[in-house]
Protein backbone atom coordinates (compact mmCIF):
# COMPACT_ATOMS: atom_id res chain seq x y z
CA UNK A 1 0.00 0.00 0.00
CA UNK A 2 2.72 2.44 1.06
CA UNK A 3 6.11 1.97 -0.51
CA UNK A 4 9.03 4.17 0.53
CA UNK A 5 12.30 3.58 -1.28
CA UNK A 6 15.71 5.17 -0.82
CA UNK A 7 14.18 8.17 0.99
CA UNK A 8 16.55 10.95 1.95
CA UNK A 9 15.56 14.03 3.96
CA UNK A 10 17.71 17.04 4.79
CA UNK A 11 17.22 20.11 6.92
CA UNK A 12 19.44 22.68 5.23
CA UNK A 13 22.84 21.09 4.67
CA UNK A 14 22.31 18.38 7.28
CA UNK A 15 20.95 15.09 6.04
CA UNK A 16 18.86 13.34 8.70
CA UNK A 17 17.45 10.38 6.73
CA UNK A 18 20.09 8.53 4.74
CA UNK A 19 18.17 6.51 2.18
CA UNK A 20 15.65 4.23 3.86
CA UNK A 21 13.24 1.64 2.45
CA UNK A 22 10.02 0.63 4.13
CA UNK A 23 6.67 -0.88 3.20
CA UNK A 24 3.25 -0.88 4.77
CA UNK A 25 0.75 -3.43 3.44
CA UNK A 26 -3.03 -3.15 3.45
CA UNK A 27 -4.50 -3.85 6.89
CA UNK A 28 -1.15 -3.95 8.66
CA UNK A 29 0.02 -2.09 11.72
CA UNK A 30 3.65 -1.12 11.22
CA UNK A 31 5.71 0.51 13.96
CA UNK A 32 8.81 2.66 13.62
CA UNK A 33 10.85 2.53 16.81
CA UNK A 34 14.16 4.00 17.85
CA UNK A 35 15.70 6.65 20.04
CA UNK A 36 14.91 10.34 20.02
CA UNK A 37 16.40 11.96 16.90
CA UNK A 38 16.76 8.72 14.95
CA UNK A 39 14.65 10.12 12.11
CA UNK A 40 11.25 8.51 12.71
CA UNK A 41 9.24 11.72 12.77
CA UNK A 42 11.15 13.20 9.82
CA UNK A 43 10.21 10.11 7.81
CA UNK A 44 6.55 10.65 8.67
CA UNK A 45 6.74 14.34 7.81
CA UNK A 46 8.22 13.50 4.41
CA UNK A 47 5.41 10.99 3.77
CA UNK A 48 2.81 13.63 4.69
CA UNK A 49 4.43 16.33 2.57
CA UNK A 50 5.38 18.57 5.49
CA UNK A 51 9.12 18.38 4.73
CA UNK A 52 10.57 17.79 1.24
CA UNK A 53 12.36 14.57 0.31
CA UNK A 54 15.76 15.30 -1.23
CA UNK A 55 15.92 11.88 -2.90
CA UNK A 56 13.98 8.67 -3.23
CA UNK A 57 10.31 7.98 -3.90
CA UNK A 58 7.17 7.55 -1.84
CA UNK A 59 4.38 5.56 -3.48
CA UNK A 60 0.87 5.17 -2.13
CA UNK A 61 -1.46 2.67 -3.80
CA UNK A 62 0.82 2.63 -6.82
CA UNK A 63 0.71 6.41 -7.16
CA UNK A 64 3.84 8.55 -6.75
CA UNK A 65 3.20 11.05 -3.94
CA UNK A 66 6.80 12.18 -3.40
CA UNK A 67 6.96 15.89 -2.55
CA UNK A 68 3.30 16.52 -3.23
CA UNK A 69 1.60 19.24 -1.22
CA UNK A 70 0.25 18.22 2.19
CA UNK A 71 -3.41 18.68 1.29
CA UNK A 72 -3.25 16.47 -1.81
CA UNK A 73 -1.68 13.67 0.26
CA UNK A 74 -4.63 13.90 2.65
CA UNK A 75 -6.94 13.63 -0.37
CA UNK A 76 -5.02 10.53 -1.49
CA UNK A 77 -6.03 8.88 1.81
CA UNK A 78 -3.19 9.41 4.28
CA UNK A 79 -3.99 11.16 7.56
CA UNK A 80 -1.57 11.89 10.35
CA UNK A 81 -2.39 12.25 13.99
CA UNK A 82 0.51 14.55 14.85
CA UNK A 83 2.96 14.55 17.72
CA UNK A 84 1.82 16.78 20.56
CA UNK A 85 -1.82 16.33 19.45
CA UNK A 86 -2.02 19.74 17.72
CA UNK A 87 -5.72 20.30 18.29
CA UNK A 88 -7.15 23.69 17.30
CA UNK A 89 -7.20 25.18 20.81
CA UNK A 90 -9.92 27.83 20.48
CA UNK A 91 -12.26 25.72 18.39
CA UNK A 92 -14.68 23.43 20.20
CA UNK A 93 -14.27 19.66 20.36
CA UNK A 94 -17.10 19.35 17.85
CA UNK A 95 -15.52 21.86 15.45
CA UNK A 96 -12.20 20.02 15.73
CA UNK A 97 -13.86 16.73 14.80
CA UNK A 98 -15.67 18.33 11.87
CA UNK A 99 -12.39 19.85 10.73
CA UNK A 100 -11.07 16.29 10.40
CA UNK A 101 -13.65 15.66 7.68
CA UNK A 102 -12.56 18.78 5.76
CA UNK A 103 -11.87 17.10 2.39
CA UNK A 104 -15.04 14.98 2.52
CA UNK A 105 -18.19 15.91 0.66
CA UNK A 106 -20.45 12.94 1.52
CA UNK A 107 -23.54 13.08 3.69
CA UNK A 108 -22.30 10.74 6.41
CA UNK A 109 -20.06 13.23 8.21
CA UNK A 110 -22.57 13.95 10.98
CA UNK A 111 -23.02 10.20 11.54
CA UNK A 112 -19.24 9.81 11.79
CA UNK A 113 -19.08 12.56 14.43
CA UNK A 114 -21.62 10.53 16.44
CA UNK A 115 -19.55 7.40 15.91
CA UNK A 116 -16.42 9.12 17.22
CA UNK A 117 -18.34 10.30 20.26
CA UNK A 118 -19.56 6.76 20.89
CA UNK A 119 -15.98 5.57 20.60
CA UNK A 120 -14.72 8.33 22.92
CA UNK A 121 -17.63 9.20 25.27
CA UNK A 122 -15.54 11.90 26.98
CA UNK A 123 -15.63 13.89 23.73
CA UNK A 124 -19.42 14.02 23.91
CA UNK A 125 -19.21 15.55 27.40
CA UNK A 126 -16.71 18.07 26.10
CA UNK A 127 -18.43 18.69 22.73
CA UNK A 128 -18.90 22.45 23.15
CA UNK A 129 -15.76 23.13 25.14
CA UNK A 130 -12.72 24.80 23.56
CA UNK A 131 -10.26 22.02 22.73
CA UNK A 132 -7.41 23.87 24.42
CA UNK A 133 -9.12 23.43 27.79
CA UNK A 134 -9.17 19.62 27.53
CA UNK A 135 -6.66 17.50 29.45
CA UNK A 136 -3.73 15.92 27.61
CA UNK A 137 -5.41 12.51 27.44
CA UNK A 138 -8.69 14.00 26.21
CA UNK A 139 -6.83 15.98 23.57
CA UNK A 140 -5.12 12.79 22.39
CA UNK A 141 -8.51 11.08 22.00
CA UNK A 142 -9.75 14.15 20.12
CA UNK A 143 -6.69 14.11 17.84
CA UNK A 144 -7.23 10.41 17.09
CA UNK A 145 -10.96 10.95 16.49
CA UNK A 146 -10.21 13.94 14.27
CA UNK A 147 -7.76 11.88 12.21
CA UNK A 148 -10.34 9.08 11.78
CA UNK A 149 -12.96 11.63 10.64
CA UNK A 150 -11.10 11.84 7.32
CA UNK A 151 -11.85 8.10 6.81
CA UNK A 152 -8.20 7.56 5.92
CA UNK A 153 -6.91 4.48 4.15
CA UNK A 154 -3.63 4.87 6.03
CA UNK A 155 -3.63 6.38 9.49
CA UNK A 156 -0.30 7.61 10.84
CA UNK A 157 0.21 8.10 14.58
CA UNK A 158 3.20 10.18 15.60
CA UNK A 159 4.18 9.61 19.25
CA UNK A 160 0.61 9.24 20.54
CA UNK A 161 1.74 8.43 24.09
CA UNK A 162 4.18 11.32 24.45
CA UNK A 163 3.73 13.34 27.63
CA UNK A 164 0.75 11.37 28.94
CA UNK A 165 0.25 9.70 32.31
CA UNK A 166 0.91 5.91 32.35
CA UNK A 167 -2.79 5.10 32.79
CA UNK A 168 -3.67 7.24 29.78
CA UNK A 169 -0.84 5.66 27.76
CA UNK A 170 -2.49 2.27 28.27
CA UNK A 171 -5.80 3.76 27.08
CA UNK A 172 -4.12 5.16 23.97
CA UNK A 173 -2.67 1.70 23.29
CA UNK A 174 -6.13 0.13 23.56
CA UNK A 175 -7.55 2.80 21.27
CA UNK A 176 -4.98 2.09 18.58
CA UNK A 177 -5.75 -1.61 18.90
CA UNK A 178 -9.41 -0.77 18.30
CA UNK A 179 -8.56 1.35 15.26
CA UNK A 180 -6.63 -1.66 13.96
CA UNK A 181 -9.66 -3.89 14.50
CA UNK A 182 -11.71 -1.45 12.44
CA UNK A 183 -9.52 -2.62 9.57
CA UNK A 184 -7.47 0.55 9.22
CA UNK A 185 -3.89 0.37 8.02
CA UNK A 186 -1.64 1.97 10.62
CA UNK A 187 1.85 3.42 10.65
CA UNK A 188 2.87 4.06 14.23
CA UNK A 189 5.84 5.96 15.58
CA UNK A 190 6.52 5.48 19.28
CA UNK A 191 9.32 5.95 21.73
CA UNK A 192 7.39 3.63 24.03
CA UNK A 193 8.84 0.63 22.17
CA UNK A 194 7.20 -2.00 24.34
CA UNK A 195 3.74 -0.69 23.55
CA UNK A 196 4.55 -0.19 19.87
CA UNK A 197 5.90 -3.70 19.42
CA UNK A 198 2.90 -5.25 21.17
CA UNK A 199 0.56 -3.47 18.77
CA UNK A 200 2.58 -3.89 15.58
CA UNK A 201 2.46 -6.68 13.04
CA UNK A 202 5.84 -5.56 11.78
CA UNK A 203 8.37 -3.00 12.92
CA UNK A 204 11.45 -1.12 11.76
CA UNK A 205 14.22 -0.04 14.11
CA UNK A 206 15.73 3.38 13.33
CA UNK A 207 19.22 4.41 14.35
CA UNK A 208 20.80 7.72 13.28
CA UNK A 209 18.71 8.13 10.13
CA UNK A 210 18.97 4.54 8.94
CA UNK A 211 16.89 1.40 9.36
CA UNK A 212 19.10 -1.11 11.13
CA UNK A 213 16.62 -3.87 11.83
CA UNK A 214 13.21 -4.98 10.67
CA UNK A 215 10.89 -7.88 11.35
CA UNK A 216 7.62 -8.84 12.97
CA UNK A 217 6.68 -7.18 16.25
CA UNK A 218 7.34 -10.42 18.11
CA UNK A 219 10.73 -10.91 16.43
CA UNK A 220 11.92 -7.45 17.39
CA UNK A 221 10.54 -7.80 20.90
CA UNK A 222 12.69 -10.88 21.45
CA UNK A 223 15.74 -9.61 19.54
CA UNK A 224 18.56 -9.29 22.09
CA UNK A 225 19.76 -5.85 20.89
CA UNK A 226 16.27 -4.38 20.94
CA UNK A 227 15.44 -5.93 24.29
CA UNK A 228 18.60 -4.49 25.81
CA UNK A 229 18.61 -1.03 24.25
CA UNK A 230 14.90 -0.18 23.98
CA UNK A 231 12.85 -2.40 26.23
CA UNK A 232 15.08 -2.18 29.27
CA UNK A 233 15.53 -5.87 30.02
CA UNK B 1 -31.45 60.43 28.20
CA UNK B 2 -32.76 60.99 24.68
CA UNK B 3 -29.57 62.86 23.91
CA UNK B 4 -27.49 59.90 25.12
CA UNK B 5 -29.53 57.48 22.99
CA UNK B 6 -29.11 59.80 20.04
CA UNK B 7 -25.33 59.76 20.39
CA UNK B 8 -25.31 55.99 20.85
CA UNK B 9 -27.19 55.56 17.56
CA UNK B 10 -24.66 57.84 15.86
CA UNK B 11 -21.89 55.83 17.48
CA UNK B 12 -23.31 52.53 16.25
CA UNK B 13 -23.27 53.80 12.66
CA UNK B 14 -19.60 54.81 12.71
CA UNK B 15 -18.84 51.79 14.91
CA UNK B 16 -20.29 49.55 12.19
CA UNK B 17 -17.81 51.04 9.71
CA UNK B 18 -14.95 50.37 12.16
CA UNK B 19 -16.12 46.79 12.62
CA UNK B 20 -16.12 46.13 8.87
CA UNK B 21 -12.59 47.55 8.52
CA UNK B 22 -11.39 45.64 11.60
CA UNK B 23 -12.93 42.32 10.46
CA UNK B 24 -10.77 42.47 7.34
CA UNK B 25 -7.66 43.41 9.28
CA UNK B 26 -8.22 40.78 11.96
CA UNK B 27 -8.73 37.83 9.60
CA UNK B 28 -5.68 38.83 7.56
CA UNK B 29 -3.63 39.22 10.73
CA UNK B 30 -4.95 35.93 12.09
CA UNK B 31 -3.82 33.74 9.23
CA UNK B 32 -0.78 35.59 7.89
CA UNK B 33 0.45 37.67 10.81
CA UNK B 34 0.51 40.69 8.50
CA UNK B 35 -0.42 44.23 9.54
CA UNK B 36 -2.17 45.11 6.27
CA UNK B 37 -1.85 48.92 6.46
CA UNK B 38 -3.05 49.45 2.90
CA UNK B 39 -6.50 48.14 3.87
CA UNK B 40 -7.92 51.62 4.59
CA UNK B 41 -6.71 53.09 1.31
CA UNK B 42 -7.98 50.09 -0.66
CA UNK B 43 -11.34 50.46 1.09
CA UNK B 44 -11.48 54.13 0.09
CA UNK B 45 -10.64 53.12 -3.47
CA UNK B 46 -13.88 51.10 -3.37
CA UNK B 47 -15.75 54.16 -2.11
CA UNK B 48 -14.25 56.35 -4.85
CA UNK B 49 -15.10 53.75 -7.46
CA UNK B 50 -18.73 53.69 -6.35
CA UNK B 51 -18.81 57.51 -6.47
CA UNK B 52 -17.34 57.42 -9.96
CA UNK B 53 -19.84 54.83 -11.23
CA UNK B 54 -22.79 56.80 -9.86
CA UNK B 55 -21.75 60.32 -10.86
CA UNK B 56 -19.86 59.75 -14.12
CA UNK B 57 -21.56 56.70 -15.58
CA UNK B 58 -24.98 57.18 -14.03
CA UNK B 59 -25.10 53.60 -12.74
CA UNK B 60 -27.80 53.13 -10.05
CA UNK B 61 -26.33 53.16 -6.52
CA UNK B 62 -26.98 49.52 -5.57
CA UNK B 63 -25.60 48.21 -8.85
CA UNK B 64 -22.57 50.48 -8.47
CA UNK B 65 -21.94 49.08 -4.97
CA UNK B 66 -22.27 45.55 -6.31
CA UNK B 67 -19.72 46.20 -9.06
CA UNK B 68 -17.36 47.85 -6.56
CA UNK B 69 -17.73 44.77 -4.33
CA UNK B 70 -16.76 42.45 -7.16
CA UNK B 71 -13.79 44.70 -7.98
CA UNK B 72 -12.89 44.44 -4.28
CA UNK B 73 -12.90 40.63 -4.38
CA UNK B 74 -10.55 40.62 -7.38
CA UNK B 75 -8.37 43.35 -5.88
CA UNK B 76 -8.00 41.33 -2.68
CA UNK B 77 -6.81 38.28 -4.62
CA UNK B 78 -4.32 40.42 -6.57
CA UNK B 79 -2.96 42.05 -3.41
CA UNK B 80 -2.30 38.66 -1.83
CA UNK B 81 -0.74 37.18 -4.96
CA UNK B 82 1.38 40.14 -6.05
CA UNK B 83 2.22 41.97 -2.84
CA UNK B 84 2.21 39.60 0.14
CA UNK B 85 2.74 36.07 -1.23
CA UNK B 86 6.30 36.80 -2.47
CA UNK B 87 7.35 37.76 1.07
CA UNK B 88 5.38 34.96 2.76
CA UNK B 89 8.44 33.07 4.00
CA UNK B 90 10.71 36.07 4.41
CA UNK B 91 11.41 38.05 7.57
CA UNK B 92 8.32 39.80 8.97
CA UNK B 93 9.84 43.24 8.39
CA UNK B 94 9.58 42.60 4.63
CA UNK B 95 5.81 42.20 4.75
CA UNK B 96 5.68 45.32 6.91
CA UNK B 97 7.60 47.34 4.30
CA UNK B 98 5.43 45.91 1.52
CA UNK B 99 2.35 47.01 3.48
CA UNK B 100 3.67 50.57 3.86
CA UNK B 101 4.69 50.74 0.20
CA UNK B 102 1.31 49.43 -0.89
CA UNK B 103 -0.42 52.09 1.24
CA UNK B 104 1.48 54.88 -0.48
CA UNK B 105 0.87 53.32 -3.87
CA UNK B 106 -2.88 52.97 -3.42
CA UNK B 107 -3.13 56.49 -1.93
CA UNK B 108 -1.25 57.74 -5.01
CA UNK B 109 -3.55 55.85 -7.37
CA UNK B 110 -6.61 57.26 -5.57
CA UNK B 111 -5.21 60.79 -5.90
CA UNK B 112 -4.29 60.32 -9.55
CA UNK B 113 -7.62 58.76 -10.58
CA UNK B 114 -10.07 60.67 -8.41
CA UNK B 115 -8.33 63.92 -7.53
CA UNK B 116 -7.77 65.65 -4.23
CA UNK B 117 -11.27 67.09 -3.79
CA UNK B 118 -13.38 65.41 -1.16
CA UNK B 119 -16.29 63.49 -2.61
CA UNK B 120 -19.62 62.40 -1.20
CA UNK B 121 -21.47 59.47 -2.77
CA UNK B 122 -24.90 60.89 -3.63
CA UNK B 123 -27.86 58.93 -2.27
CA UNK B 124 -31.52 59.87 -2.27
CA UNK B 125 -32.19 58.55 1.21
CA UNK B 126 -33.25 61.85 2.75
CA UNK B 127 -36.07 60.83 5.05
CA UNK B 128 -35.56 61.21 8.77
CA UNK B 129 -37.23 58.86 11.23
CA UNK B 130 -38.17 59.95 14.70
CA UNK B 131 -38.54 57.26 17.33
CA UNK B 132 -39.36 58.55 20.82
CA UNK B 133 -37.41 61.75 20.31
CA UNK B 134 -34.39 60.04 18.79
CA UNK B 135 -33.88 61.08 15.18
CA UNK B 136 -32.42 58.57 12.77
CA UNK B 137 -31.68 59.69 9.22
CA UNK B 138 -32.73 57.03 6.71
CA UNK B 139 -29.18 56.66 5.35
CA UNK B 140 -27.72 56.10 8.81
CA UNK B 141 -30.33 53.42 9.49
CA UNK B 142 -29.43 51.62 6.26
CA UNK B 143 -25.74 51.81 7.11
CA UNK B 144 -26.39 50.22 10.52
CA UNK B 145 -28.58 47.50 8.99
CA UNK B 146 -26.11 46.76 6.21
CA UNK B 147 -23.21 46.56 8.67
CA UNK B 148 -25.22 44.23 10.94
CA UNK B 149 -26.10 42.03 7.98
CA UNK B 150 -22.49 41.84 6.79
CA UNK B 151 -21.20 41.06 10.29
CA UNK B 152 -23.81 38.31 10.67
CA UNK B 153 -22.95 36.90 7.24
CA UNK B 154 -19.24 36.90 8.08
CA UNK B 155 -19.89 35.14 11.41
CA UNK B 156 -22.05 32.48 9.76
CA UNK B 157 -19.42 32.02 7.05
CA UNK B 158 -16.58 31.53 9.55
CA UNK B 159 -18.53 29.37 12.01
CA UNK B 160 -20.75 27.31 9.72
CA UNK B 161 -18.91 26.65 6.46
CA UNK B 162 -15.94 24.39 5.83
CA UNK B 163 -13.94 27.18 4.22
CA UNK B 164 -14.65 29.45 7.18
CA UNK B 165 -13.58 26.77 9.64
CA UNK B 166 -10.45 26.19 7.56
CA UNK B 167 -9.63 29.89 7.92
CA UNK B 168 -9.87 29.56 11.70
CA UNK B 169 -7.88 26.33 11.63
CA UNK B 170 -5.03 27.92 9.65
CA UNK B 171 -5.00 30.84 12.10
CA UNK B 172 -4.83 28.52 15.11
CA UNK B 173 -2.43 25.86 13.88
CA UNK B 174 -1.14 26.04 10.32
CA UNK B 175 0.63 22.65 10.26
CA UNK B 176 -2.33 20.82 11.76
CA UNK B 177 -4.57 22.51 9.17
CA UNK B 178 -2.38 21.08 6.39
CA UNK B 179 -2.80 17.62 7.96
CA UNK B 180 -6.58 18.11 7.78
CA UNK B 181 -6.23 18.58 4.03
CA UNK B 182 -6.52 22.37 3.98
CA UNK B 183 -4.79 23.99 1.02
CA UNK B 184 -2.84 26.75 2.78
CA UNK B 185 -2.12 28.47 -0.54
CA UNK B 186 -5.74 29.16 -1.44
CA UNK B 187 -6.97 30.15 2.03
CA UNK B 188 -5.08 33.50 2.06
CA UNK B 189 -6.66 34.32 -1.33
CA UNK B 190 -10.14 33.75 0.09
CA UNK B 191 -9.30 35.81 3.18
CA UNK B 192 -7.95 38.77 1.18
CA UNK B 193 -10.89 38.67 -1.25
CA UNK B 194 -13.47 38.74 1.56
CA UNK B 195 -11.56 41.28 3.64
CA UNK B 196 -11.21 43.66 0.73
CA UNK B 197 -14.88 43.30 -0.20
CA UNK B 198 -15.84 44.14 3.41
CA UNK B 199 -13.45 47.10 3.23
CA UNK B 200 -15.15 48.31 0.05
CA UNK B 201 -18.48 48.22 1.90
CA UNK B 202 -16.93 50.32 4.65
CA UNK B 203 -15.58 52.73 2.02
CA UNK B 204 -19.04 53.13 0.50
CA UNK B 205 -20.50 53.78 3.97
CA UNK B 206 -17.88 56.42 4.78
CA UNK B 207 -18.37 57.96 1.35
CA UNK B 208 -22.13 58.25 1.72
CA UNK B 209 -22.33 59.12 5.45
CA UNK B 210 -19.39 61.54 5.52
CA UNK B 211 -16.96 62.08 2.68
CA UNK B 212 -13.93 60.46 1.08
CA UNK B 213 -10.75 62.47 0.70
CA UNK B 214 -7.03 61.74 0.56
CA UNK B 215 -5.81 60.57 3.98
CA UNK B 216 -9.21 59.34 5.20
CA UNK B 217 -8.24 55.74 4.47
CA UNK B 218 -5.03 55.99 6.47
CA UNK B 219 -6.92 57.46 9.41
CA UNK B 220 -9.45 54.67 9.21
CA UNK B 221 -6.82 51.91 9.19
CA UNK B 222 -5.32 53.37 12.37
CA UNK B 223 -8.78 53.18 13.96
CA UNK B 224 -9.11 49.66 12.59
CA UNK B 225 -5.93 48.57 14.35
CA UNK B 226 -7.03 50.33 17.52
CA UNK B 227 -10.20 48.20 17.33
CA UNK B 228 -8.14 45.04 16.86
CA UNK B 229 -6.03 45.77 19.90
CA UNK B 230 -9.08 46.80 21.90
CA UNK B 231 -11.02 43.66 20.97
CA UNK B 232 -8.15 41.16 20.93
CA UNK B 233 -5.88 40.38 17.97
CA UNK B 234 -7.27 37.88 15.50
CA UNK B 235 -10.64 37.62 17.27
CA UNK B 236 -13.78 38.18 15.20
CA UNK B 237 -16.14 38.78 18.18
CA UNK B 238 -13.39 41.09 19.48
CA UNK B 239 -13.50 43.16 16.30
CA UNK B 240 -17.28 43.51 16.60
CA UNK B 241 -17.26 44.51 20.27
CA UNK B 242 -14.15 46.68 19.88
CA UNK B 243 -15.55 48.53 16.86
CA UNK B 244 -18.84 49.30 18.57
CA UNK B 245 -17.13 50.39 21.81
CA UNK B 246 -14.82 52.73 19.89
CA UNK B 247 -17.63 54.14 17.73
CA UNK B 248 -19.98 54.76 20.66
CA UNK B 249 -17.24 56.26 22.84
CA UNK B 250 -16.28 58.63 20.06
CA UNK B 251 -19.87 59.70 19.50
CA UNK B 252 -20.51 60.28 23.20
CA UNK B 253 -17.26 62.21 23.52
CA UNK B 254 -18.10 64.33 20.50
CA UNK B 255 -21.62 64.95 21.72
CA UNK B 256 -20.95 65.78 25.34
CA UNK B 257 -17.37 67.01 25.53
CA UNK B 258 -15.97 68.24 22.27
CA UNK B 259 -15.65 66.79 18.80
CA UNK B 260 -12.08 68.06 18.74
CA UNK B 261 -11.29 65.65 21.58
CA UNK B 262 -13.17 62.61 20.27
CA UNK B 263 -10.07 60.80 19.01
CA UNK B 264 -8.18 61.56 22.21
CA UNK B 265 -11.00 60.20 24.35
CA UNK B 266 -11.38 57.11 22.17
CA UNK B 267 -7.71 56.30 22.60
CA UNK B 268 -7.85 57.02 26.33
CA UNK B 269 -10.60 54.40 26.57
CA UNK B 270 -8.47 51.98 24.58
CA UNK B 271 -5.45 52.50 26.81
CA UNK B 272 -7.54 52.11 29.97
CA UNK B 273 -9.00 48.82 28.71
CA UNK B 274 -5.54 47.54 27.89
CA UNK B 275 -4.27 48.43 31.37
CA UNK B 276 -6.76 45.98 32.86
CA UNK B 277 -7.07 43.48 29.99
CA UNK B 278 -3.79 43.47 28.05
CA UNK B 279 -5.14 40.71 25.78
CA UNK B 280 -8.06 42.92 24.68
CA UNK B 281 -11.75 42.68 25.51
CA UNK B 282 -12.36 39.30 23.85
CA UNK B 283 -8.76 38.11 23.43
CA UNK B 284 -7.47 34.90 24.96
CA UNK B 285 -4.79 35.44 27.55
Short overview:
The complex is a heterodimer of chains A (233) and B (285). By secondary structure, chain A is α/β, with parallel strands linked by helices.
Describe the 3D structure.
The complex is a heterodimer of chains A (233) and B (285). By secondary structure, chain A is α/β, with parallel strands linked by helices. Chain A has helices at residues 40-47, 70-76, 93-100, 109-119, 121-125, 136-148, 166-181, 193-199, 217-222, 224-229, and strands at residues 2-11, 14-24, 29-34, 55-60, 63-64, 78-81, 154-158, 185-189, 202-207, 210-216. Chain A is 37% helix and 27% strand. A 6-stranded mixed beta sheet of chain A has the order 6-7-8-3-9-10, with helices on both faces. In chain A, helix 3 runs parallel beside helix 6. Chain A is globular and about 45 Å long. Chain A starts with a strand and ends with a helix. The mean pLDDT of chain A is 92. With 285 residues, chain B is mostly helical. Chain B has a single domain (2-276), classed as Orthogonal Bundle (ABC transporter involved in vitamin B12 uptake, BtuC), CATH 1.10.3470. Chain B is 74% helix and 3% strand. Chain B has helices spanning 2-32, 39-56, 61-84, 92-114, 138-160, 162-172, 174-179, 187-209, 216-231, 236-256, 262-276, and strands spanning 128-131, 134-137. Chain B has a two-stranded antiparallel ribbon with strand order 1-2. Classes of the chains: A alpha/beta (233), B mainly alpha (285). Chain A binds chain B through residues 48-50, 69-71, 74-75, 79-80, 82, 86-91, 95, 98-100, 102-103, 146, 150, and chain B through 162, 165-166, 168-169, 172-173, 175-185, 284. Chain B: Belongs to the binding-protein-dependent transport system permease family. LivHM subfamily. Chain B: It holds the Pfam family BPD_transp_2.
